Amino acid sequence: MFQLLLHPVVDLRPFLPDQAVARLTRPLWPTPTARQDFLRASGPVRPRLQGGVDEWAGEDNFASASMALRLPDQLRHQRIGTDEAPCIVSHVFRRFYCSGVVGRFEIGFRIQRDTRAALTAAATAQLIAACASLPVRLRGASDTRPLLTAGAGLARHFLGASTDRKAGISPQPWWVAAGQPALLIEYAAVDGLASLPHARVVSSARVGAEVLQHAWLEIAGQRLSTWLLRRDAAGASPEELRKLRIHLVRLHCERECLRLVLEATAQQRLGNSVDQAHELNDYLDRTLPLVSRPTSHGVEQSQLLDVARTAWNAAMPGHSASFQALGDKASKKVSRYLRAAETAAPVITQIIGTQMNTHIQLGTVTVAGDFNLVTAQNIQNSFNKAAGAAVDEPLKEALKALTTHVAELAKRLPPEQAEAVSKDLSTLAAEAVSKEPRKRWYELSAEGLVDAAKTVAEMAAPVTTAVGAVLALLR
Fold first, then answer.
1. Per-residue pLDDT averaged across 258-273, rounded?
2. Is-contact 113 85, C-beta < 8 A?
3. What is the pLDDT of residue 161?
4. CB 449 within 8 A of CB 429
5. Taking a C-beta distance cutoff of 8 angstroms, is the pair 201, 16 a contact?
6. Domain match, 137 and 270 both
7. Do both 400 and 318 map to the same domain?
8. Long-range interactions of 245-249: CB distance < 8 A, separation 24+
9. Count: domains in the chain
10. Which residues pair with 246 in a beta bridge?
11. What pLDDT is recorded for position 7?
């Protein structure tokens, strides 16, 4: 089993005047000189053994990051995981890749289990959490922190390592920022991993892998986009699997760095001059298609985008005005992308020691509970239908509010009743956003929701009121 944890890092200095940021000219990303360039306080630039890929710039070479991030001493001689799934780390690497604006730190582990016994879903999650939570120490720091929370420190490290100290300029922390981390696990059947709770499967015919799953995990308070790729399908092409791995990694990094670029623009830190606006427009023209179109670089990615989409938590209020300086064309492109990004309600599995909990992110509200798969998916899909529907804004907001109240109701009900309530919600949402809502269907579903709410005293009034608000807009 191979586990790759990546921390996206966005470098905003290409959008700023060179003399103002004092960025070192070597290494010159995305085309550094292997075996000659050196990233200060990190390590030498080396060529990738299997080379890069034609589709993505900046994948040919990397800088070693062994000096930037210190792992536990004698890690290969330590056992990690749980009693059910003890394992050792047989190989480790730390690397930094950069294509200009978009960079990433990668920490890779090859993991060997003591036994080949099949794991439960809980044991699989705990093994993943143990590796992602290894205590690490950043260069110059005296304390340790969990590996998956090291992103901000690595961004600060890269900013310092790539700034000319003789220029007399104090680097601004926002010039280089860290995005949300991601995890890619490549495994074979003999590794005995189980499907993670609430994981979504991507059709193998679309991506050339036997099994590709995505799950949202929360470990040590950090949300983690997690891909699990099975590599031992009969007839599977190693080259195609490698291409898919790189695509998954870059797709996550491109989306995260785009988010950070847009946030900096909305905060009026970028795009404030003609030159900046020109650079940003060029970047948006390159990047927006990569992270939104159904096929990119020869990979059918519509399902990849769907299962890994994450809500933006209503960030960037008034973003339309913030992006207007880029021109109507760019502003409209950004607005369309943001509207699509805001329609997701990820189901997240929280791992705390040996315990697992489920919570659903519904816009700015998080509802935690012991939801089964069907209930969670019905609630998630209902919210997404409402948020992405081409209906009037009052109806959209009323449906989103109803979904939140029903999620709170469902977590207080026995599993069978919770599932039934979620089905009523799904039916009501589907009818409400259809072109011709069927009154008999949505009223019957509404009645089921109200009746179920009456069995939970504190939820009766909120659910009844929310149902009434939706029905009033449908009549």
1. 86
2. yes
3. 96
4. no
5. no
6. yes
7. no
8. 245/4, 245/184, 245/186, 246/53, 246/56, 246/59, 247/55, 247/56, 247/296, 247/297, 247/299, 247/301, 248/184, 248/304, 249/4, 249/6, 249/104, 249/106, 249/182, 249/184
9. 2
10. none
11. 97
**For residue 144, what are its two tokens?**
């340790």
The one-letter amino acid code at 45 reads V
Q: Return the structure tokens found at 471.
A: 């029905």
Residue 313 pLDDT: 46
Residue 43 has pLDDT above 90, yes or no: yes
**Residue 314: its pLDDT value, please?**
40
**Percent of the chain whose predicted confidence (pLDDT) is above 70:** 91
Q: What is the pLDDT of residue 324?
A: 64
Query: Is the same domain home to 378 and 333?
Result: no
The DSSP 8-state label assigned to residue 241 in this structure reads H
Q: Is the pLDDT of residue 320 over 70?
A: no
Q: Is 153 within the bounds of a domain?
A: yes
The answer to whether position 142 is within a domain reads yes
Instruction: Quote the domain boundaries for residue 448.
Output: 370-474
The pair of structure tokens assigned to 119 is 């794991």
Inform me whether the pLDDT recorded for 350 exceeds 80: yes
| Domain membership flag for residue 350 | no
User: Is residue 379 located within the same domain as residue 325?
Assistant: no
Q: For residues 316 and 193, give the distance between their C-alpha atoms in angstroms, rounded to a whole number.
A: 39
Question: Residue 186 carries which side chain, given as an amino acid letter?
Answer: E
User: Mean of the per-residue pLDDT values for the chain?
Assistant: 87
CA distance 39 to 37: 7
Three-state DSSP class for residue 129: helix
Residue 212 lies in a domain: yes
- The answer to whether the pTM exceeds 0.85 is yes
Pair (319, 450) in one structural domain: no
| Residue 315 confidence (pLDDT) above 50 | no
Hey, what amino acid is at 413?
L
pLDDT at 468 over 70: yes
Residue identified by tokens 């959490």 is 129
For the segment 68-114, what is each residue's pLDDT rounded down to a tens digit? 999 988 887 777 776 666 788 888 899 999 999 999 999 999 988 87
Distances (CA, A) of 156 to 68, 152, 174: 11, 6, 9
Hey, what amino acid is at 402?
L
- Please give the Cα distance from 229 to 244 (Å, whole number): 9
Q: 381 and 337 in one domain?
A: no
Say if residue 307 is in the same domain as residue 438.
no
